[in-house]
Specification:
By secondary structure, this protein is of the alpha/beta class. The chain is built from six helices and seven strands; from the N terminus they run βαβαββαββαβαα. α3 crosses α4.
Length: 189
């Protein structure tokens, strides 16, 4: 029984494949809205639930995920331009930020909404470091303007928590929920 993944993210698809979880990816019919003073944790949980609820379940479990990068209470979403990406990376350089992901799993008659936080420390970044990384284009479509699974790994000094959460899906959290709610269905529990 496949999961319905409310996402077209190639990273989320790759993580589910890595875990051996069958899925069907569907673009969610959900429009994200980020109020200026919203709690990052509440926001990603709300977006994950909104994405999951936007799909027609067709009798299958539905998975919605949303991820944000947070430093000193400021949300760093997906940059629209190279200049915006450079600005984000300059702020993140030499600091520890949080990657906060909300996860919503809907089953028949039940719903679980939780979140995961991974702390990522960037090494100090000079202007050349930032310019070279922005030139790769890898920042496009990435919260916080980097992809840890790619050349962005060179920006990172250390991480504390679930690496796959930083890639795009809090895998340990998903496996725990599947083991609790659907023991044996996906090989967990």
């Amino acid at each position: 029984m496949p999961l319905l993944l409310a996402s077209t993210s190639p990273q989320r698809r790759a993580i589910l494949e890595q875990l051996g979880i069958p899925f069907v990816a569907v673009s969610p019919a959900y429009v994200e809205h980020d109020p200026p003073r919203a709690s990052p944790t509440d926001l990603v949980r709300e977006h994950a639930a909104g994405k999951a609820h936007s799909l027609e379940p067709r009798g299958l479990p539905v998975l919605g995920v949303d991820t944000a990068v947070v430093l000193d209470g400021r949300l760093y979403g997906k940059p629209a331009t190279a200049a915006e990406a450079a600005d984000m990376l300059e702020h993140l350089g030499g600091h520890t930020h949080e990657v906060v992901s909300g996860l919503c799993l809907l089953g028949p008659g039940w719903e679980v909404v939780e979140h995961e936080i991974t702390r990522v420390s960037f090494r100090p970044l000079g202007l050349q470091d930032v310019a070279a990384y922005v030139a790769t284009g890898e920042w496009r479509g990435r919260a916080g303007a980097y992809a840890i699974q790619g050349r962005g790994a060179g920006l990172v000094e250390k991480i504390d928590g679930d690496y796959l959460n930083v890639v795009g899906l809090p895998a340990a959290l998903l496996v725990r929920i599947l083991a609790e709610r659907m023991p044996g269905a996906y090989g967990f529990g």
